[in-house]
Amino acid sequence: MTTISILAIVVTLLIVVLLAKPVGLYLAAAFDYAPNRLNRIYGPVERIIYKISGIREENQSWKMYAASLIGSNAVMIFIVYLVLRFQGMLPLNPAGIANMEPSFAFNTAISFMTNTDLQHYSGESGVSYLSQASVLVFAMFVSPATGLALVMAFIRGLTGKAAGNFFVDLIRGLTRVLLPVAFVSALLFVFMGVPQTFEPAATATTLEGAQQTIARGPIASFLAIKEVGNNGGGFLGVNSAHPFENPSGLSNLLQILLMMLVTSALPFAYGKMAGSIKQGRVLFASMLMMLIIMTTVSLTAESAGNPALNNLGIQHEQGSMEGKEVRFGEAQSAFYSVITTAAETGAVNTMHDTLTPIGGLVPLANMMLNTVFGGMGVGFVNVLMYAIIAVFLSGLMVGRTPEFLGRKIEGKEMKLIAVTLLVQPFLILVPTAIALATNPETISNPGFHGLTQALYEFTSAAANNGSGFEGLGDATTFWNVSTGIVMFLGRYISMVTLLAVAGSLAAKKPIPESSGTFRTDTAMFGAVFVGVVLIVGALTFFPALVLGPLAEQLTL
């Protein structure tokens, strides 16, 4: 690994840090219901949308907010499913792609509407242009906007305000954040050489005289929302490892920045909305520290490569290049794998199945924790959940009733949080055990790596990430249905329980800060927060990790 490759990663992280606060302040203003300049700019257009849609700009209770979120998303899942099932009969299908099989359509519709974009089909051959450019792109806008709406409602509840209105927040997420950034990003990707066309696949004659079919389509517009919305689904089968989706180091940099743009800014949006930028800064610094640790571990593992091959003298001189694109090298490939799982995007520029055991453990850990920045909105809600747990445990240790943002944390809130904490391990570990017992033939690698393949698939589904160990034979009814159920439950159960927590806290009277109040804007709180994430989050999955990637590493 060269000095230049390390410097490139440092510069990328520095840009992320510089963008985080101004973008966070913009997000806080974009979702503020009080009169401000953004409301004057976007308000006229949004009011037209409200009028056409019949949306009333009035606050909802947390129950109504949750019902609106779940109900609207369920309807949209059904619409996406219908288009995929009948795409072969619809226009904009120059390749003549057939109707999607029921279990594939079930999986894909849930996948894209839950911001997961787990793909059990090959991008260029599984769906038509109409499906790609209409319902899938539609879902790729609406699902992250749903996540943004959730986090804003949750923050409002923590600060004692009404939850707001889900439909208003959804529209604001689209008009004020996702559409403007995606439009500009798509133009930049076209400038960098990413195709944007509705022409069918091109046919070329190679130097040997063979005929080659070259897939293309409206890739740039798909790619823009794929990254900024933390979606991750690829227009082409190999995702951002394909030169049409990621032609150069510059496009790779832009993709990383887009993945981190909103998710890294949310701590500062929270700080602004809570009336303490310092609190947001502490959470941002804590997550950045975890990201740097994960990056360091991944880079070290991938640069070291396979010890067995090193002993034979046949390891690549720059580390492990298996499954990686030469135009990126092992450093940018490993860094991308960390970012895409830290931001819960799921895009890949290298095949994660070919990472070293420790290099593959890092993406797994990012998804299991779901707090190393996390995905569009939902990840930061998990961060705030762990912050509440940190305050609760700290209060118990000093014999005081825990308080968070001036409100007591009591049994009702902790029971809801306990349910939320238990959901993800259940959705990951139980289906993994069932898959290993009933579908061993779909797992391409025996032993420890095979266990990791199945574990990674359900972890990716439960965390709404979407990346995968692609050696797994997941194009079956079992994997389609099981991961579809896991994606749905992993997305929506935690949304409802955490909205209930916010609603419960909002109903409580604020308590004046005293000398005994555990401050949440100090470095000590940041250290406690990181410790709670690692102890409560990581230890839950440690036995599974020991049987998978850690055991595999010891056998090399």
From TrEMBL:
<feature type="transmembrane region" description="Helical">
    <location>
        <begin position="523"/>
        <end position="546"/>
    </location>
</feature>
<keyword id="KW-0406">Ion transport</keyword>
<comment type="function">
    <text>Part of the high-affinity ATP-driven potassium transport (or Kdp) system, which catalyzes the hydrolysis of ATP coupled with the electrogenic transport of potassium into the cytoplasm. This subunit binds the extracellular potassium ions and delivers the ions to the membrane domain of KdpB through an intramembrane tunnel.</text>
</comment>
<feature type="transmembrane region" description="Helical">
    <location>
        <begin position="416"/>
        <end position="437"/>
    </location>
</feature>
<keyword id="KW-0633">Potassium transport</keyword>
<feature type="transmembrane region" description="Helical">
    <location>
        <begin position="253"/>
        <end position="270"/>
    </location>
</feature>
<keyword id="KW-0630">Potassium</keyword>
<keyword id="KW-1133">Transmembrane helix</keyword>
<dbReference type="InterPro" id="IPR004623">
    <property type="entry name" value="KdpA"/>
</dbReference>
<feature type="transmembrane region" description="Helical">
    <location>
        <begin position="478"/>
        <end position="502"/>
    </location>
</feature>
<comment type="similarity">
    <text>Belongs to the KdpA family.</text>
</comment>
<feature type="transmembrane region" description="Helical">
    <location>
        <begin position="6"/>
        <end position="31"/>
    </location>
</feature>
<feature type="transmembrane region" description="Helical">
    <location>
        <begin position="135"/>
        <end position="155"/>
    </location>
</feature>
<feature type="transmembrane region" description="Helical">
    <location>
        <begin position="282"/>
        <end position="301"/>
    </location>
</feature>
<feature type="transmembrane region" description="Helical">
    <location>
        <begin position="372"/>
        <end position="396"/>
    </location>
</feature>
<feature type="transmembrane region" description="Helical">
    <location>
        <begin position="64"/>
        <end position="84"/>
    </location>
</feature>
<feature type="transmembrane region" description="Helical">
    <location>
        <begin position="176"/>
        <end position="194"/>
    </location>
</feature>
<protein>
    <recommendedName>
        <fullName>Potassium-transporting ATPase potassium-binding subunit</fullName>
    </recommendedName>
</protein>
<keyword id="KW-0812">Transmembrane</keyword>
<dbReference type="Pfam" id="PF03814">
    <property type="entry name" value="KdpA"/>
</dbReference>
<keyword id="KW-0472">Membrane</keyword>
<keyword id="KW-1003">Cell membrane</keyword>
<keyword id="KW-0813">Transport</keyword>
<comment type="subunit">
    <text>The system is composed of three essential subunits: KdpA, KdpB and KdpC.</text>
</comment>
